[in-house]
Amino acid sequence: DTAVSQTPKYLVTQMGNDKSIKCEQNLGHDTMYWYKQDSKKFLKIMFSYNNKELIINETVPNRFSPKSPDKAHLNLHINSLELGDSAVYFCASSQEGRGRFTEAFFGQGTRLTVV
Amino acid sequence: GESVGLHLPTLSVQEGDNSIINCAYSNSASDYFIWYKQESGKGPQFIIDIRSNMDKRQGQRVTVLLNKTVKHLSLQIAATQPGDSAVYFCAENLLTGGGSNYKLTFGKGTLLTVNP
Predict the structure, then answer these.
(1) Structural domain containing residue B38
(2) Domain range enclosing A44
(3) Which of A55, A95, B69, B89 has the fewest beta carbons under 10 Å from its own?
(4) CB contact under 8 A, A43 and B6
(5) Do the Cβ atoms of B75 and B59 come closer than 8 Å?
(6) How many domains is chain A partitioned into structurally?
(7) Which of B26, B35, B104 is nearest to A58 (CA)?
(8) Domain of A40: which CATH number?
(9) Is residue B41 a part of any domain in this protein?
(10) ω into A8 cis (within 30 of 0)
(11) Under DSSP, is residue A44 helix (H, G, I), strand (E, B) or coil?
(12) A52 to each of A47, A55, A71, B6, B51, how far by Cα in Å?
């Protein structure tokens, strides 16, 4: 059983295109995230959603628009793709509550290559 | 090889040796810390965590030490095996948004290579 699944695993596209990455978690968590990992393996949080509500937006360009139709899904739409958007994008989920945080579970990643 | 151009801190050990991976964190208010392992082509995977009211926690072959005075974490892996080869990240968790939301921030990562 896959806990956090994201599709597609690989995405190659031309500059200027619009693309989406989908993420689903079956852990019953109420918080989901998008992280970006660059070529130097640095992992940086982009967005966090709690029960479909945007909680964290780390000054990501507004070409990136997350959408959470329900608490089990968090999709990432990217408009007007640029070369610098090439990276691996990870979706994750965690359970927050009662003033405590539990570990985040990560998907397998989507390798986006913009040409 | 994978490490070319990455400029990650690297640690190379012989199979069977113990490994120690170090991490400095930035915020003294962080109250929860996690070590993740990331194998090539995969997402980060939870190894062990520790809360700020502890200074040591042990798992199976792994131990995490927390020194809040100097804001330092370490991950010790006993009897390192080739399957332990991966990039290891420490992450600190901090309450943000006036204390209402959590934010997990990752450190730079260390590439561990285990030689058979």
Answers:
(1) 15-95
(2) 4-114
(3) B69
(4) no
(5) no
(6) 1
(7) B104
(8) 2.60.40.10
(9) yes
(10) yes
(11) strand
(12) 12, 9, 5, 35, 27
Could you say which DSSP state residue A104 is in? P
Answer whether residue B114 is part of any domain: no
pLDDT digits (tens, 9 = 90+) for A67-95: 999 999 999 999 999 999 999 999 999 98
Token digits for A53?
A: 């509500």
Count how many domains chain B has: 1
**Chain B contact residues (CB < 8 Å to A):** 5-8, 32, 34, 36, 38, 41-46, 49, 87, 89, 93, 96-97, 101-106, 108-109
**pLDDT number for residue A100:** 67
Query: Can you give the CATH number for the domain in which B19 is found?
Result: 2.60.40.10
Residues of chain A with pLDDT under 50: none
Hunting for tokens 């992280």 — which residue is that? A35
Amino acid letter, residue B21: I
Q: Mind listing the pLDDT tens digit for each residue in B21-75? A: 999 998 888 889 999 999 999 999 999 999 999 999 999 999 999 999 999 999 9
